[in-house]
Design a protein that fits this description.
Layout (H helix, E strand, L loop, with lengths): L2 H27 L4 H22 L3 H6 L4 H24 L2 H8 L2 H13 L5 H18 L11 H20 L5 H17 L13 H25 L2 H7 L2 H12 L7 H23 L14
Length: about 300
C-alpha cells in the first residue's frame, strides 16, 4: 500500500477499536462505577505511555521533562475527568446520543480558542459553530417528552474534552507530542488513583475478561492512532474520527437496542457537517491542528 493508504488503514483501525471500547465501557458501566472502570483503563494506558516514552528518542527522562509541568498535569486530570463523565453518559443516556453530542467538540474548541488562545475565528466558522449547536439542541431534545437532565452529562463531557484540547494546543508550543502523551497517561492515572480505590468493585462472571479486553484494546487503539499520524496529516485523521459516531450508533442499536429518533438523526448530521467544515477552515487557515484522539476515548 501507499503511505497514504497505510495511514488511512491505521486510522480506520484506531476508530474501529475505540468504537468497540465504547460498547464494552457501556456494558461494564451498567454494573460497576465509572471511576473504577476508568481507573483500570488508565493503569494500562499509563504503562503504555511510560514504555513509549522510554523507547522514544532521549529515553524516559528526556521525554518526561517539561517546561510547563502544571499545564501538563492539568491536561491529564481534565482527560481523566472526561473519561469518567463519558462512561457515565454511556450508562445513563446511551451510546448513540452521547457519542453524537461528543462530536461537537471541534466546534467548542473553535469557540474557546478565541478567549483562551487569542485566535481569530472568521464569520464562516462562526456560522458553522452556530449551526452545529442547533444540531446539538436537536440531539439533546428527545422526540417525545420533556428535557432530560441526564443529557447534560455528554454535553459536560464535550466541554471538558474541549478544554483538554485547548490545553494540549498550549502545551504543544513548548513540549513534544511524546512528552504530552506521557503526561496524559501518567498524570491522569495518578489523579484517578487518588479517588478510584474508594469505588473498588469485584468482577462477576466474565466481566474481568471484558475489563482486560478494554485495557488491551485501548493500548492497541492508541498505537494505531500514533502510527496513522506518521503517514497522513492530522486533519485527515481528525475527520475520520467522525466514523466513530456511525460505528458506535450501530453498536447501540444492534447490541443495546437503542432507538434513533428524527431529532437524533438530523441533529447528528448537522453536528458532523458543521464539525467537518470547522476542521476544513482551520486547515485552510494554516493553523497547527491538534492531533486529537476520538471523543471520549482512552
Amino acid at each position: 500500500m501507499t503511505s497514504r493508504a497505510t495511514g488511512l488503514a491505521f486510522a480506520l483501525l484506531a476508530v474501529t477499536i475505540f468504537s468497540i471500547q465504547d460498547g464494552v465501557s457501556k456494558h461494564l458501566a451498567d454494573n460497576y462505577p465509572a471511576i473504577f472502570i476508568a481507573m483500570m483503563r488508565y493503569w494500562a494506558f499509563a504503562a503504555f505511555a511510560i514504555v513509549l516514552a522510554s523507547r522514544s528518542s532521549g529515553g524516559l527522562v528526556a521525554n518526561a521533562t517539561t517546561s510547563r509541568p502544571v499545564l501538563q498535569i492539568l491536561r491529564g486530570v481534565l482527560l481523566a475527568v472526561q473519561i469518567v463523565v463519558a462512561i457515565m453518559a454511556f450508562a445513563t443516556v446511551g451510546l448513540s446520543q452521547s457519542q453524537a453530542v461528543f462530536q461537537s467538540a471541534p466546534l467548542l474548541v473553535a469557540l474557546l480558542s478565541m478567549p483562551l488562545l487569542g485566535e481569530r475565528v472568521g464569520w464562516r466558522r462562526w456560522t458553522a459553530i452556530m449551526i452545529g449547536f442547533v444540531g446539538v439542541i436537536l440531539i439533546l431534545k428527545p422526540d417525545a417528552g420533556g428535557f432530560d437532565l441526564n443529557t447534560l452529562l455528554p454535553m459536560a463531557g464535550a466541554v471538558i474534552y474541549s478544554l483538554y484540547s485547548i490545553t494540549t494546543r498550549l502545551a504543544s508550543r513548548t513540549d513534544t507530542a511524546t512528552t504530552s502523551f506521557f503526561y496524559t497517561g501518567v498524570a491522569g492515572a495518578v489523579a484517578i488513583t487518588l479517588v478510584g480505590p474508594f469505588y473498588w468493585s469485584s468482577f462477576s462472571g466474565n466481566d474481568a475478561y471484558w475489563m482486560a479486553a478494554l485495557c488491551a484494546s485501548g493500548i492497541a487503539g492508541h498505537y494505531f492512532l500514533i502510527r496513522a499520524f506518521d503517514y497522513v496529516d492530522a486533519v485527515i485523521v481528525q475527520s475520520m474520527s467522525y466514523l466513530q459516531l456511525v460505528l458506535v450508533t450501530m453498536i447501540g442499536v444492534f447490541i443495546y437496542g437503542e432507538t434513533l429518533g428524527f431529532n437524533m438523526v438530523v441533529g447528528s448530521i448537522i453536528v458532523v457537517c458543521a464539525g467537518l467544515f470547522t476542521i476544513y477552515r482551520e486547515a485552510r487557515a494554516g493553523k497547527k491542528l491538534l492531533k486529537m484522539y476520538p471523543s471520549g476515548d482512552l
